[in-house]
Design a protein that fits this description.
Layout lengths: L1 H4 L19 E14 L2 E8 L2 E7 L6 H4 L7 E10 L14 E12 L16 H6 L1 H4 L3 H23 L3 E2 L17 E3 L7 E3 L5 H9 L4 E10 L10 E11 L3 H19 L4 E2 L6 E3 H8 L13 E2 L10 H6 L6 E7 L5 H13 L6 E4 L10 H18 L6 E7 L1 H18 L7 E2 L1 E5 L4 E4 L4 E4 L10 H7 L9 E6 L2 E8 L4 H10 L4 H7 L1 H7 L6 E7 H9 L29 H7 L14
Parallel strand pairs: 3-5, 6-9, 11-17, 12-18
Antiparallel strand pairs: 1-2, 1-4, 2-3, 4-5, 7-8, 9-10, 10-23, 13-14, 14-16, 15-16, 18-21, 19-20, 21-22, 22-23
Length: 602
């Protein structure tokens, strides 16, 4: 026992012992994961961070009386002897499954009260309970493994970035407010009353300034903060990204540097699923929208939409024919191989109505029959129906669905319909990670609410055509050296070649309604830096949370982060946000102007 006494809590972890340790004395500490009573013999699965070991206490053990009082999630120390499990009782799914510990001594280190959620198993519990008791939730195997995998993914990202000559730098957290496309979190200054810092939406300006300072290749696992309304693919409050920037590069140089990093991470952690080999497809934004109805297409879905307007122009299907009298209107077809049954077409029509649409027009081709079927086919006739079938490459037993009107207005719905058809017809290969670059994003877009031109993506991107394009081209036709990485229907990275000339920077912001004075006031550091020898540079940022979510097969970002907020941006564990004290407000020279509480209805 000398060896055990010299190690207060453990001589081994709960994942360490193997058949070769048979006969050794050991000391383990951990949580009582599961307790079973088999005819008076107690079996305790003891769990720690490293694994699980089966421990046995029989009535002959001096520890038996205390063992009978143990409950789930009590923290205990067990002393005992390693022995091989009886033949036929081995657990091949457990690394320690060939052995068990015959327990001779127990010490209770921490008693657990009645559990608000079970750690054993993977039963569903309300999200409010899981977040309030996150420390228990994190003990559960699946979530614990997700967090450990996240750490390994980040380690690999760092290693691959360093392999390519990137250096890791930490940029400030307290900074100035910047129009990055979302609302800032503001932090009041006590020393400078009435002024506020902002938490960074991204390290955008700082990483560009690092290029001005001559550091050439930068990266960081960067925390980013955005005061946004909840979104399905972004956590409220904060998220992390693999942020990077490079000097003396063009767009292709970024692609060559990034593909091995992201590709290797997906190959290493993708559990054997196919990963798109380099070079990845480069899909122009306009093509992505017209083919897939999305700028983050799921390329596991083989369906490609096509413009079939000509087959409806002047036809007897008056709804579409009249629409096409307006030159901006089009008719797009979503092919549905294997969907040629009226029941499926009616289900899709009902789905569309549930999405707020009047319906979803269709044609289907029955097995063993010539010509199409359905109301549209009856109106446009067999010749036009056959031309649509041939254009889409369809056959008997297939169908096609149609979206019509102004593509700018129906494109999102058309993309959702493509996804729905692919899912319902089981066309999506779940064993693939399909990666692609989406390129040639528009530099500007029309803001209908404010009746003005806005930046469509990143305001610091270089316009294709440079300063001359900003001076002479219709802003809504200017493309940017801007790119995203799409994977399985998610945007997992975004970036661009930067606009590094001061006159071009000012002109770009003027087009979006910001005068030179505003540029100097809001981006003074970068504006000054551009006057003192600015290298051509570019970069991007990849979303760590989304990448981890895809790789572990989670359905929600809260399954891959340690202490997330709920969808109302509340930290239920720590009780944030919380009201400040009067003293804190006085120190910050602040006074609250809260919205009036509505009186409850009688």
């Amino acid at each position: 026992m000398t060896k055990l006494n010299s190690q207060r809590y453990r001589s081994h972890t709960c994942g360490a012992l193997r058949a070769g340790d048979d006969g050794q004395t050991t000391r383990l500490s951990g949580w009582c994961h599961r307790i079973r009573d088999h005819g008076g013999v107690l079996f305790v699965d003891l769990r720690d961070h490293y694994g699980m070991t089966q421990c046995v206490i029989d009535p002959d053990s001096p520890a038996f009386q205390l063992a009978e009082t143990l409950r789930s999630e009590w923290v205990v120390r067990f002393d005992g002897k390693v022995r091989l499990r009886p033949n036929g009782t081995e657990n091949k799914d457990l690394p320690t499954g060939e052995i068990e510990i015959f327990v001779t001594e127990i010490e209770v280190l921490g008693v657990a009260g009645e559990l608000p959620l079970m750690v054993f198993g993977d039963q569903p519990f309300p999200e409010e309970t899981r977040l309030k008791y996150r420390f228990l939730d994190l003990r559960r195997e699946r979530l614990h493994n997700n967090i450990m995998t996240r750490g390994k993914i980040i380690d690999m990202m760092r290693a691959r970035m360093r392999d390519q000559g990137f250096n890791e730098f930490q940029t400030p957290i307290l900074t100035a407010s910047s129009p990055e496309g979302a609302r800032d979190f503001l932090v009041p200054s006590r020393i400078h009353p009435g002024t506020f810092y902002a938490l960074p939406q991204a390290p955008q300006q700082y990483k560009q300034l690092l290029m001005m300072a001559g550091f050439d290749r930068y990266f960081q696992i960067a925390p980013c903060f955005r005061d946004e309304d909840p979104r399905a693919d972004r956590l409220p409050g904060e998220f992390y990204q693999l942020d990077l920037e490079m000097s003396f590069v063009e767009q292709e140089d970024i692609f060559v540097a990034v593909e091995p990093v992201i590709g290797d991470v997906f190959r290493a952690f993708g559990q054997g699923k196919h990963v798109t080999p380099s070079p990845w497809p480069r899909i122009p934004y306009a093509e992505s929208m017209s083919k897939y109805g999305s700028d983050k297409p799921d390329l596991r879905n083989p369906l490609v939409m096509q413009d079939v307007s000509e087959h409806f122009r002047g036809s007897n299907f008056k709804v579409f024919a009249r629409m096409l009298e307006d030159p901006k209107n089009r008719v797009w077809a979503i092919p549905a191989p294997g969907g040629g049954q009226r029941t499926f077409c009616d289900r899709m029509n009902s789905w569309a109505q549930g999405e707020g649409q009047p319906g979803l027009g269709y044609v289907f081709w029955r097995e063993g029959e010539t010509g199409g079927a359905g109301p549209i086919a009856n109106n446009i006739g067999p010749e036009r129906t056959e031309a649509i079938r041939l254009q889409l490459g369809l056959k008997e037993g297939d169908a096609a669905f149609f979206a019509a009107g102004d593509p700018d207005k129906f494109v999102k719905f058309a993309g959702a319909a493509r996804t729905k058809v692919g899912q319902d017809l089981n066309l999506i290969d779940e064993n693939r990670y399909e990666l692609a670059w989406i390129v040639d994003f528009p530099m500007f877009e029309w803001n209908e609410d404010e009746k003005k031109v806005d930046f469509s993506h990143n305001p610091f991107s270089m316009p294709q055509g440079g300063y001359e394009a900003l001076q002479n081209q219709d802003p809504l036709t200017i493309k940017a050296f801007q790119y995203d990485i799409a994977c399985n229907g998610f945007e997992i990275a975004s970036g661009g070649i930067r606009n590094h000339k001061p006159e071009a920077m000012v002109k770009a912001f003027e087009i979006a309604g910001y005068g030179e004075e505003t540029v100097i006031e809001r981006f003074g550091g970068m504006y000054r830096a551009f006057h003192y020898g600015a290298p051509p540079h570019g970069g991007m940022a990849a979303g760590v949370d989304r990448i981890v979510m895809l790789l572990v097969g989670a359905q929600n970002l809260r399954e891959v982060t340690l202490f997330p907020m709920n969808q109302q941006a509340q930290d239920l564990l720590m009780g944030a946000p919380a009201a400040p004290t009067n003293q804190q407000l006085r120190e910050l020279h602040l006074r609250l102007n809260l919205p009036e509480q509505k009186a409850p209805k009688a």
